[in-house]
Amino acid sequence: MRLRDLPEDERPREKLLTRGAAALADAELVAIFLRTGVKGKSAVDLGRELIKRFGSLGAIAAADRSEFTAIDGLGDAKYIQLQAAVELARRALTQEMRGSDNLSSPEAVRRYLRLLLEHRPVEVFTGLFLDAQNRLIAAQELFSGTLTQTSVYPREVVKHALRHNAVSVIFAHNHPSGVAEPSRADECLTVALKQALALVDVRVLDHFVVGHGSMLSFAERGLI
Q1: Which residue in 158, 149, 98, 99 sits closest to 125, CA to CA?
Q2: I need a surface site. Which of 49, 101, 135, 167 has the fewest CB within 10 A?
Q3: Band of the pLDDT at 18, cuts 50, 70, 90?
Q4: Which tens digits make up the pLDDT trace of 27-82?
């Protein structure tokens, strides 16, 4: 069914205006982003196809250019729009964290880290560098690796902390497998980073492991 054939209050754009964006299903939100469908498929149909193919909105956002543009009706223009939208969301969350006390806004930290890391195809290690009031100075992708591991060098992390004049830091990395459980290597790395940063009076507040739809905090688990 074409969108124009739907009752006006069931069309995604009109529905958003009358009920708010939160009232829309995932496929309807994707439809608004796409604007138009293709022959034989409405924008909502195409949105459903995208979600089914990639598995989630986050996976759509993390799709690489070749995967995204391989779908009939999608090209570089849509891919560029998508990446711009994702980056806008990342920057908005970064600004939200910069404007507040990170420790009193843990959900902002979690939302940012999930958006940044949840669907990355390789392991990425990130640091959030904080000042004496636990405000964000910088969010920096420090190292990236393969599907199963990332090489992290404590000496380089110390250099970044000193460069940002950070008082404390929160680390995070993703598990492309989707399982948010720390390995023994993750635990050993966290201890090594904590010891190295303590030499320059920088505290490690937490280390998050980001999976698919889940996140583990070392601090909450009692591992730090």
Answers
A1: 149
A2: 101
A3: confident
A4: 888 888 888 877 778 888 888 888 888 888 878 888 889 988 888 888 898 889 88
Please, which pLDDT band fits residue 181 given cuts at 50, 70 and 90?
A: very high
Query: Going by C-beta distance under 8 Å and a sequence separation of 6 or more, which residues neighbour residue 19?
Result: none
Q: How many CA atoms lie within 13 A of 49 on its CB side?
A: 17
Q: For position 4, what pLDDT does the model report?
A: 58
Separation between Cα atoms, residue 158 and residue 70, nearest integer Å: 42
Whether residue 92 contacts residue 148, with contact meaning beta carbons closer than 8 Å, is answered with no
Higher pLDDT, residue 158 or 19: 158
Angle made by CA atoms 60, 206, 62, in degrees to the nearest 5: 10
Provide the whole-model pTM.
0.69
- Give the separation between CA 215 and CA 109, rounded to whole angstroms: 11
User: Which residues, in sequence order, are CB contacts of 187 under 8 Å at separation 6+?
Assistant: 223
> Residue 199 corresponds to which tokens in the numbers above?
């030499």
CB 42 within 8 A of CB 22: no
Separation between Cα atoms, residue 105 and residue 130, nearest integer Å = 13
For residues 116 and 49, give the distance between their C-alpha atoms in angstroms, rounded to a whole number. Answer: 24
Residue 5: pLDDT over 80? no
> Helices H, strands E: what count in the chain?
10, 5
DSSP state of 41: B
Instruction: Give the integer Cα–Cα distance in Å for 18 and 198.
Output: 54
Give the torsion through C-alpha atoms of 10, 47, 55, 117, to 10 deg.
Answer: -100
